[in-house]
Design a protein that fits this description.
- With 199 residues, this protein is mainly beta.
- The protein contains one helix and 14 strands, in the order E-E-E-E-E-E-E-E-E-E-H-E-E-E-E.
- Strands 1, 2, 3, 4, 5, 6, 7, 8, 9, 10, 11, 12, 13 and 14 form a 14-stranded mixed β-sheet that branches.
Length: 199
């Protein structure tokens, strides 16, 4: 049936791929006819950690209480990764993280595979144009997003990513008053946002 199931009766299955280490009680993999992983389901509490090959520092860590799944969205031609049950994704070096009961991420799997682990290369296509592998993020129920510049609390967060150009901003006006739109959040005074839904 082109299905591979791994279980551990008293602990977690540990799977390693490049810089990623995955721990979970049960892992199921479904393969295509040419032996590529098409879908995956990690059931039970688990985590996945990516470390820097040189420094061994944690680059990103995701944890969950219920499941982690990977499924293709054939209509959009992307992969959908979903964390369910108190999902958490943290980037310690950037001091950023997100917590939500469910977290879905739409990714261009082909762009990531073509980069062969080179994160920077995933943002540049063959012709040099900007190509974002991250297409969309949706987080639901008790969502908290924390970074040095912003703290956000909401019940629904929906973000769509589109490649664009970054332009240098105009110098800030000397007459800008505190609390105006020209002020950015900083590490000492992050922007705090609380809303039912954020898009």
């Amino acid at each position: 049936e082109r299905t591979n199931e791994m279980q551990h009766s008293t602990g977690n299955v540990e799977a390693r791929f490049r810089s990623d280490i995955l721990n979970c009680p049960t892992i199921r993999l479904w393969h295509t006819d040419d032996d590529q992983i098409e879908s995956a389901l990690c059931q039970g509490p688990g985590n996945i950690v990516r470390r820097d090959d040189k420094t061994d520092e944690v680059l990103v860590e995701a944890t969950w209480q219920e499941s982690l799944s990977l499924n293709p969205d054939r209509e959009l031609g992307v992969d959908v990764r979903e964390i369910a049950g108190d999902g958490r994704v943290v980037q310690p070096l950037q001091k950023t993280g997100i917590v939500a009961d469910t977290l879905r991420v739409w990714l261009d799997g082909k762009a990531i595979q073509a980069a062969d682990g080179d994160l920077e290369a995933t943002f540049v296509s063959a012709d040099g144009a900007n190509e974002l592998p991250l297409k969309r993020v949706h987080a639901a129920t008790d969502v908290a997003l924390v970074s040095p510049r912003m703290h956000l609390e909401t019940q629904s967060l929906d973000v769509t990513f589109v490649a664009g150009q970054v332009h240098s901003s105009e110098p800030k006006s000397a007459s800008a008053q505190p609390g105006t739109a020209e002020q950015d959040g900083d590490q000492e005074h992050p922007v705090v946002v609380a809303a039912d839904a954020v898009t």
